[in-house]
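Appendix C reproduces, verbatim, an entry submitted by the partner laboratory led by Prof. M.T., so that reviewers can inspect both the input and the predicted structure.
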Amino acid sequence: MNAPAPSPVPASWWDKVEQFFFAPERPVGVALVRITIGLVLLIPTLHRVFRVREFYSSDGAPSPIWNNYGQPGFLPIPNAPMAAGLYALLILSLVTTSIGWRTRMSLALAAVLTAYLGMLDVISTITKYTVVSTHVLALLAMSDCGNLWSVDAWLARRRGTSLRIDGPAWPRRLIQILIGVVYLGATMTKIHTPAFFTGDQLRYWMLTNVNSANPTGEFLSQFPGMIIGMAYVTVMWEVLFLFVAWRGWPRLIMLSTGLIFHFLTMLTLGLFVFPFLYFAVYLAWLEQGDLTWWRQTLRKSPSLPEPVMLQPGVTRKFPSGPAWAGVVGAVFLLGVGIDRASDPFGDHRAEGRHVLQPISEERVAQLLRNDEDVHVTDKVFALDVGSVRFNDNLVDRRQTFAYGETVLIQCSLQPPHEDMYVEVYLRDAAGQVHRRLWQVVSRENLRGHFWFLMDDSLAPGDYSIVMRIDGKDAAQRSLQLEGGSGVAQVGYEEAVEK
């Protein structure tokens, strides 16, 4: 009689962790990230190519980040020719990263130069996407992303050799964890920012063109209820991302929500590089099985092509390493030469270097005067009329009311502001005042609220809400009162209080 087969031993927690990080896999996701991230980073890099001297050299006005931490001279600030050469190498490294030529060296060079040049210009160059991209480039440099869909793989096949296709998963996993941790950190910041949940922060961002023009954001800023809802959904998604975006439907939901979220930041906030960077990094969630499914869906080959082995000596070997080093040196010298030829500061002009011209004393006095107060109209962000408030925000702006309804007036102020004495009047078309309320809006509040009951003491017709600050007219809104069943004037105070 045969003995029963032993039951399989369930994998321990440590075995699952080891499998998660070190299981061999084909570097599909990291290869796609490598290809796209280089192209994305070329967008801001090429945009700043004509400002290298000003941003990154001692001949311009660099603003190194280490000065903010009391460490002047922590890293050397290059002169103009050196900065131009290094910037040219950054562009080269991003290109060779994308095409996969000497991939590890290209990624390492791109990571170092992105971090170094970014730290030289804390005012504009170093941003959240700079920090994230630097970490992603460094992790890609430790992966086998150059062994697939790259010049390196093509040259290996021509030499009759093959590169390692299956490698450990940990570089891809660390990229995924990095994105999840960034989302979690962003959530912690939002939780400690009350203005985010009231919609004020998003609303102000939507109305500015600090990043770029965003007419969609300007339109959506008129719907504060939707903005508040988006704020809560964003926080819940960012909290859950790190814990559930790994497999099955939760992964699909989290990644789809992320794609929609970052696409909306393009439309509403005018962001472009940051969303494109995250579109690229999301490719790290693609695995061999996903690509096989897509190929089968599109009626293509069900798997990736295996490397073609050629016999040694069939083709002449290409000296990839020396060629790459030669291109690096040539590009560095080209950058120095272009900077010298452009001569933006006029160092090589016959009449000498460009000199800043002083402005007139009248203009200096105008710029430095402090005897003018901000007009009250410039202290008001908005004056809105409606009837429903949610999370301290008016959410149903309208102009038509009926007898018995309570008019809610919300005055939103520009931050920062001093303690303000704010009055609100209800005035008819003839200019007669029928209601008056006042309150002090303290400096820590962004808005004040007033209520008027539309009872039958008011005749139907056109009215206006007038807001005054310190006795001066600051804003005005119109409304219409329609006839209908009345509310007795004797109950006005009780109705308002209720």
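The radius of gyration is 31 Å. Additional entries are available on request from the coordinating office.
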